[in-house]
Specification:
Length: about 650
């Protein structure tokens, strides 16, 4: 088996089958522009990683914990090295509140029971059981751990404050003007000058760098204030025990990145390389150093393959070492996980309302020894979005199955298309193509959408009013939503089909309707913010609308679109009107003579709708009436004619 692994014949299938899944549908150079990506790209790509709003698979990700890191059971609540025990000095009684224990200190301890055989005392009645010498010496590994606990450690602490979530407003008129203040070791670090005005979900993107000494300066206090002209008010606070993160075996000092990269927005920012970390852990555990077999690595009697999907050009040794570090819980000598690169979400509370959450704060912490080389910090400064204008011209529809029947029992549909980008309430609609019998419809109708898009985050920024002075901001992938509907007069309009287009990661359209089919997995993708203009046919999706129980009727529907993305400067220099209006007016489409509103054109309704159907019946009726009238006249005049004939 090892010989096969050494020659690389079947390493990855045995070690990691997931790594063999190679996705070749993202082969366009337009999508891979890492120089434009920042840490926020990785953050939002992790937040919107779902089937409905899937972002690019070629972007790196991290882990987002929606609770505190010390509340994660997979990391032993960061109490594997010691358990905190609160020392109480009586109980405090309040007039308008429940009694509260007076906690004056916290003792961290770890109890370990080891079976041993103690010698028999000469005088058992004389006592002295507690002063016996230990029969079994302490393990050297435990001795070094105990010695390290008694040493003073100077740390460099980096606190990355990402954003606030659902902050409770302290102002009566609107949201709070939030900023962050930190307290550590008797020092205060305030960020009052960079407050976020009038936001319930403020985006901070701030880095705080400070020094601490363990075990003295072990508690970090992070407070969020409301900026005010008279007096700033406290919104909430959270306390973080730095010693638990430094001492735990889960290595909560610097999170492990999902993939190893030397440079770029996913660069490795730990002091040690993955291979050095792995060797250090093996030495502390007393097992053999890792051994490499071609494309796999052997650690603790187990084989692991490369799990890299994006950064495959990096050193194989580091990639394999990182794969082992990510699977430490599978090793028999370890059996626990290491903390990955993450962002934790911490609840904010106040002293006067200890059990009422005042909001949440998303952040992460990195710890380094202060007397060694420390890598440069990560820049998480948010980049403001840019204004864009998206122009979507709906040209034609093909393959729309008729959903109604006219009075003569013939299948037909009155088709129209609606579309929106940021807000569904601001959707735009084409005109109606009446009486579509063959499943085809022509529009040549332009929709114009404005959006704020950040190329670094690959998301569009949406701001909405949530109150009189309140404005909320959230981010979503830049998706254009198009839906096909059937217009009904007496009942609700019927939903037929839909199309969702991610402008930065969309499938390339087909050049002709005959070639248009459901997209395969390896279909080429394009970034319209770089391509600017695209024309072609897109297959429609026949998923059911949430408001209707029945399944959509379209199975092979196709839509011809022309999409153009312009910057705000380009939109001002080359303005375009909506619909078919100027500037850059569009020509009306060619439609059959029967395509019109029958309620507003009764004469045309008779000419193009009723007359073609009843024409033969009317002609036959007239012919029969003429024949009958001729016979009646003939037989009614026959007696008079007979009387005029002379008799011989």
């Amino acid at each position: 088996m090892r010989l096969l692994f050494a020659f690389g014949l079947r390493p990855a299938p045995y070690a990691n089958r997931h790594a063999l899944r190679f996705h070749d549908d993202l082969d366009d150079h337009e999508l891979v522009e890492e120089r434009e990506f920042t840490w926020w790209t990785k953050f939002y790509n992790s937040m919107y990683w779902s089937a409905a709003e899937m972002c690019h698979e070629h972007k790196h990700r991290l882990v987002i914990y929606y609770e505190e890191l010390e509340k994660q059971a997979q990391f032993g609540y960061l109490q594997d090295w010691a358990v905190p025990v609160q020392l109480v000095h009586g109980v405090k009684f309040k007039k308008h509140g429940p009694p509260k224990e007076d906690i004056y200190a916290t003792l961290k301890l770890q109890l370990k029971l080891t079976p041993c055989q103690c010698p028999v005392l000469e005088d058992p009645g004389g006592g002295g059981d507690m002063v016996r010498n230990m029969s079994n010496p302490i393990h050297p590994r435990h001795q070094s751990t105990l010695q390290s606990l008694g040493e003073t450690v100077k740390l460099l602490v980096r606190v990355y404050v990402v954003q606030g979530v659902q902050m409770r407003p302290r102002d009566v008129k609107g949201d709070s003007d939030c900023y962050v203040k930190l307290f550590l070791g008797g020092k205060t670090f305030s960020d009052r000058a960079h407050f976020s005005p009038n936001h319930s979900n403020p985006v901070f993107g701030r880095l705080f760098e400070m020094e601490a000494t363990l075990p003295g300066d072990h508690m970090l206090q992070v407070m969020v204030y409301d900026h005010d002209k008279i007096k700033d008010e406290v919104i909430g606070q959270t306390n973080i025990d730095l010693e638990d993160r430094w001492r735990t075996r889960h290595r909560a000092t610097v999170g492990l990145a999902n993939e190893y990269t030397k440079s770029g927005y996913n660069h490795w920012h730990d002091v040690k390389l993955p291979s050095e970390i792995l060797i250090d852990l093996c030495q502390k555990r007393g097992i053999q150093a890792p051994y490499y077999y071609g494309n796999v690595i052997e650690v603790d009697g187990m084989l692991f393959g490369d799990e890299t999907l994006i950064s495959k050009d990096e050193e194989l040794q580091e990639r394999l070492s990182l794969a082992v570090l990510k699977n430490m819980d599978k090793l028999p000598s370890f059996g626990y996980k290491l903390v990955p690169e993450h962002v934790e979400t911490r609840s904010l509370c106040r002293d006067d309302f200890p059990n009422v959450e005042q909001g949440k704060l998303q952040l992460w912490i990195e710890l380094f020894e202060a007397n060694i080389y420390v890598p440069s910090p990560i820049d998480i400064t948010p980049v403001p979005p840019a204004d864009f204008e998206v122009r979507v011209v709906v040209k034609n529809l093909v393959g729309i199955q008729a959903g109604d029947k006219n009075i003569f029992g013939k299948l037909m549909s009155d088709v129209y298309v609606i579309g929106w980008c940021e807000d569904e309430d601001k959707r735009q609609s084409t005109d109606i193509h009446y009486r579509s019998f063959a499943g085809d419809a022509a529009f040549n109708w332009r929709m114009v959408f404005g959006l704020k898009y950040s190329p670094n985050e690959d998301l569009m920024v949406i701001r909405r009013k949530a109150g009189l002075l309140e404005e909320i901001e959230f981010k979503k992938p830049p998706i254009i939503y198009l839906q096909v509907w059937d217009k009904d007069v007496l009942t609700k309009d019927e939903y037929l089909a839909a199309l969702e287009l991610n402008l930065s990661n969309m499938y390339a359209p087909y050049p002709a309707a005959q070639l248009c089919k459901p997209y395969p997995k390896k279909r080429k993708r394009i970034n319209l913010f770089k391509r600017k203009v695209i024309n072609g046919w897109f297959p429609l999706q026949s998923n059911a609308h949430p408001s209707q129980r029945s399944q959509a009727a379209v199975q092979n529907g196709k839509m011809q679109l022309s999409i153009e993305v312009c910057t705000d400067v380009e939109a001002v220099n080359r303005p375009a009107g909506r619909g078919q209006d100027p500037p850059m007016a569009l020509e009306p489409p060619y439609r059959p003579d029967s395509s019109f509103n029958p309620l507003t054109h009764p004469c045309k309704s008779f000419q193009h709708i009723l007359w073609p159907v009843i024409r033969k019946y009317v002609l036959w009726t007239l012919l029969i009436l003429i024949v009958i009238l001729g016979l009646v006249l003939f037989f009614s005049n026959l007696p008079a004619k007979l009387m005029t004939i002379p008799l011989e």
